Amino acid sequence: MLTGACLCGDVGFEVDGDLIEIAHCHCSACRKFHGSAYATFGAVDPKFFRWTRGEEKIAHHQSSEHGFRHFCPRCGSAVPANPEGGPIALATMGSVAEDPNIRPAVHIFAGSKAPWHTIVDDLPRHEEYPPEWGAPSGIDRPVREAETPGATPGSCLCGEVRYEYDGPPERMVNCHCSRCRRQTSGAYGTFVFVAEDAFRWLTGSDSIVDYKMPEADIKGSAFCRHCGSLVPRLRDPGGMQIPAGGLDADPGVKPAVNIFTGSKAPWSALDESIPCFAGYPE
Ligand SMILES: [Zn+2]
Ligand SMILES: [Zn+2]
Ligand SMILES: [Zn+2]
Question: Does pTM top 0.90 for this prediction?
Answer without folding.
Answer: yes
